[in-house]
């Protein structure tokens, strides 16, 4: 069982930066590939970024590539999302997700494949 709690979402101006954090509970955090998803009003939840269990493999949505960076600290059981050059279209509720990994380099980029979800944190980018 893994519980996830996100933090760091707030109102920011376009062009600004935010750092989202996700704290996990449970003894086997390092066995889970981690990901960030987001959901804007009236839209489906969409993939943002993913990282493998060891952190050696990452994957980003085209819309955030070059602006967002995912990282994890297995000792602290945290995963972060550094968001730079924010745009109004980045406005959404951001969710942390965990998937029990079947290989060390695997990432999981669909919402349906995730095992656990956090409650979400609101990011609002004003233009």
What's the gist of this structure?
With 127 residues, this protein is an all-beta fold.
Itemize the secondary structure elements and their pairings.
Layout: E1 3-7, E2 11-13, E3 18-25, E4 32-39, E5 46-51, E6 58-60, E7 68-73, E8 78-83, E9 92-100, E10 116-117, E11 121-126
Parallel strand pairs: 2-11
Antiparallel strand pairs: 1-3, 3-8, 4-5, 4-9, 5-6, 7-8, 9-10, 9-11
Q: What order do the helices and strands follow?
A: EEEEEEEEEEE
Percentage of residues assigned to helices: under 10%
Distance between the termini: 40 Å
Query: Count of DSSP E strands?
Result: 11
Largest sheet: 7 strands, mixed
Whole-number mean pLDDT: 96
Strand content: over 45%
Low-confidence stretches: none
Overall form = globular
Structural class by sheet pairing and helices: mainly beta
Question: How many alpha or pi helices?
Answer: 0
Radius of gyration, taken over Cα atoms and rounded to an integer in Å: 13 Å
Describe the structure in your own words:
- The strands form two sheets. Strands 2, 4, 5, 6, 9, 10 and 11 form a seven-stranded mixed sheet that branches.
- The protein has no helices and eleven strands.
- The protein has strands at residues 3-7, 11-13, 18-25, 32-39, 46-51, 58-60, 68-73, 78-83, 92-100, 116-117, 121-126.
- Strand 7 and strand 8 (78-83) form a beta hairpin.
- The model has no long low-confidence stretch (mean pLDDT 96).
């Amino acid at each position: 069982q893994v519980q996830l709690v996100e933090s760091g979402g707030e109102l920011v101006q376009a062009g600004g930066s935010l750092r989202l954090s996700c704290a996990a509970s449970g003894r086997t955090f390092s066995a889970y590939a981690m990901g960030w998803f987001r959901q804007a009003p009236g839209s489906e939840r969409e993939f943002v970024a993913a990282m493998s269990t060891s952190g050696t493999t990452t994957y980003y949505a085209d819309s955030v590539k070059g602006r967002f960076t995912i990282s994890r600290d297995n000792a602290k059981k945290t995963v972060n999302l550094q968001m730079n050059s924010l745009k109004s279209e980045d406005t959404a509720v951001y969710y942390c997700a965990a998937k029990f990994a079947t290989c060390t380099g695997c990432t999981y980029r669909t919402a349906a494949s995730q095992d656990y979800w956090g409650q979400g944190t609101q990011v609002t980018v004003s233009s």
